[in-house]
Design a protein that fits this description.
By secondary structure, the protein is of the alpha/beta class. Helices cover 20% and strands 18% of the residues. It has a four-stranded mixed beta sheet with strand order 1-2-4-3, with no helix packed on it. A four-stranded parallel beta sheet has the order 5-6-7-8, with no helix packed on it. It is elongated, with a radius of gyration of 23 Å.
């Protein structure tokens, strides 16, 4: 597979859809629901009988789909509700993704963490930041210099650059850990395992931050109950890969709802869903 195809779309409207089990596979006709590889489902329909007198392309033993059934067909996308006015007792979950910290920390990252730590803005901003119950770093916190088919041995410059990226993240985390709990969920460019589910960042990478009990290094995907509400989160590789091959095309929100409907958070793993590489 050429490197140029690693990041691009993998399907188009004219691609056939095949249903496969442990014994055989059959070509589906008339499938109208979004589908990707790896989805488990039940399909109702009929097999088009082979006619020896009228051989046609659409009557050669293909399966004509009448209905489909997934694990959670009752999952629907709720309508957008009007924004409610906040009250002084409200608590918030701060989700941050794609900081991509490298050898130098960007100004926006400094401003963000100063705001979370109530060190930036006016009195009203400090009051708002004080209601943040937890900070979640959902992937790509560090910009690791990796490319596809990377050689095993790195030169000293690449190793030094990687260590500097992680150290900058470690220093940045110490600004907010004394005041608010923080969870790190690894992503495509973070220094952790390649295969999904990704393992937590090793404590030895964050020597300063691990001194605080408010730090949690979590897996990807990540599930937790915060303030009585259950959350299921990923760093986004599953949704990005679904959008690459789902036919017909859907929005990001619809792709997230499909994972619940299918009962599979990472249906395309490990075929095409792996941690995204930078460069290449």
């Amino acid at each position: 597979m050429p490197k140029s195809s690693l990041q691009g779309p993998l399907s188009q409207e004219t691609d056939p859809v095949v249903l496969e089990d442990s014994t055989t596979r059959v070509l589906l006709k008339g499938l109208q629901v979004p589908m990707v590889t790896g989805v488990v489902c039940a399909i109702r329909g009929k097999v088009n009988a082979i006619s020896f007198f009228h051989l046609q392309m659409d009557r050669n033993g293909d399966f004509e789909v009448n209905d489909t059934c997934f694990l959670h067909d009752s999952v629907v996308i709720p309508p957008m509700e009007e924004e409610k006015k906040s009250s002084p007792k409200d608590s918030y979950l701060c989700c941050v993704s794609g900081m991509n910290i490298n050898e130098t920390v960007s100004l926006r990252c400094h401003l963000l963490f100063e705001f979370i730590a109530s060190q930036l803005g006016f009195v009203e901003d400090a009051k708002f930041a004080s209601h943040i119950a937890r900070v979640l770093l959902l992937g790509n916190s560090v910009a690791m210099p990796r490319i596809p088919f990377q050689r095993i041995r790195q030169d000293n410059k690449e190793i030094a650059r990687s260590l500097q990226c992680v150290e900058n993240l470690d220093v940045l985390l110490t600004q907010v850990l004394p005041s608010v709990p923080l969870t790190i969920v690894p992503g495509a460019t973070d220094p952790t395992s390649i295969l999904l589910p990704q393992q937590p960042l090793h404590p030895s990478l964050l020597l300063r931050s691990t001194r605080y009990s408010s730090l949690e290094c979590a897996t990807n995907p990540y599930s937790a109950t915060i303030d009585g509400k259950t959350f299921l989160m990923t760093s986004g590789q599953n949704v990005q890969d679904i959008l690459r091959q789902v036919v017909p095309s859907v929005s990001v929100i619809e792709a997230m709802a499909l994972t619940l409907q299918w009962g599979a958070l990472f249906p395309t793993d490990p075929n095409t869903c792996r941690r995204r590489w930078r460069g290449g």
